[in-house]
Amino acid sequence: MSDLIRFEKHDDACDVYISGEVDLSNSTEIRKTILSALKTTHSVTVDLSAVEYIDSSGIAAMVEGLQFAHSHSKNFTLRNPSKQVRSIMELARLDQVFHIE
After folding, report:
1. Which residue among 27, 69, 95, 101 is least enclosed by CB atoms within 10 Å?
2. What pTM was estimated for this model as a whole?
């Protein structure tokens, strides 16, 4: 696991913390971490407060996590998206698709 991602598992939930820049060079690692967490717990929350930049591949990793969660009756939440992440999500209207805390 890199400095980019850390997670805390408790009971049947997992909090995934992502920091730095999320782009094509690391979005696969993020996607794998999110999907792995969803396969082993009922609820996954991804904290995006420390993400300075996210590109379309990073957004795609979040969308894939959401789709997996929906198709397996699991919970997937985004928490505290940074100002940059929130503006991208609002521009793409994804703030209406994801559950955001």
Report:
1. 101
2. 0.92
pLDDT in tens, 34-65: 999 999 999 999 999 999 999 999 999 999 99
What tokens does 96 get? 């209406």
Give the angle 94-35-30 at the CA atoms, nearest 5°.
70
Work out how many domains the chain is built from and give that number: 1
- Which domain covers residue 41, as residue numbers? 5-100
Cα separation, 50 vs 42, whole angstroms: 24
